[in-house]
């Protein structure tokens, strides 16, 4: 995570439409971790004392016309599962 920077290129693949990867860029990185800084609910397993889950939110912005190649029937909505691959330059 320390190598991620705003502006880095991201290729996003939406699980429901895996044949159509879309391009994006990192817009911002949130500096806080844990439930108080996250829009996602905390992971409260009974054994959470063994390992604490930390989430570091990364906001990405899709590039203009990123979905132009998608079929007209493609429904893309918030909350869909995706895989994001970031091209990091060290």
UniProtKB/TrEMBL annotation:
UniProt GO BP: transmembrane transport
Name recorded for this polypeptide: Membrane fusion component of tripartite multidrug resistance system
Organism: uncultured Sphingomonadaceae bacterium
Record lineage: Bacteria, Pseudomonadati, Pseudomonadota, Alphaproteobacteria, Sphingomonadales
């Amino acid at each position: 995570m320390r190598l991620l920077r705003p502006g880095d290129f991201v290729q996003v693949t939406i699980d429901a439409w895996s044949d159509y990867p879309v391009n994006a860029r990192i817009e911002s990185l949130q500096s806080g971790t844990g439930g108080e800084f996250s829009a996602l609910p905390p992971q409260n397993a009974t054994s959470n004392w063994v390992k604490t889950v930390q989430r570091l939110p990364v906001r990405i912005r899709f590039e203009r016309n990123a979905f132009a190649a998608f079929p007209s029937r493609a429904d893309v909505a918030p909350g869909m599962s995706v895989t994001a691959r970031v091209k990091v330059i060290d």
